[in-house]
Amino acid sequence: MNNLDILSWSATFFILLSFLFDGRLLRYLNICGGVLWFVWGMWVNQPSVYFLNIMIVLIHIWKLSKASREKFKNKLKKFFENRHDI
After folding, report:
1. What pLDDT does residue 72 have?
2. pLDDT per residue over 52-77, tens digit each?
3. CB-based contact 30:54 (threshold 8 Å)
4. Inter-CA distances, 69 with 6, 12, 25, 76, Å
5. How many CB atoms are closer than 10 A to CB 34?
6. d(CA 14, CA 25)
7. What is the pTM of this model?
8. Under a CB-based contact definition with an 8 Å cutoff, are residues 50 and 35 in contact?
9. Half-sphere exposure in the Cβ direction for 78 (13 Å, CA)
């Protein structure tokens, strides 16, 4: 087994593993797999593979940051509502 095989099997493992989970963990594991597939695509010069996977990684990062912003806004709102009662 050469380095390309190890890389591709590792990427496959992370992608498959990600589907066993929900939410943030799914996204984090899928990002790992996507980054590995991106590297593989660059290594073997397959533009469609690296384009697809970098887009998937960026979408996951965007979704994670959006969820974090929403969570922060809700905590901030709750904080100010509680302060108003004092």
Report:
1. 84
2. 999 999 999 999 999 888 888 888 88
3. no
4. 36, 30, 17, 10
5. 26
6. 11
7. 0.80
8. no
9. 6
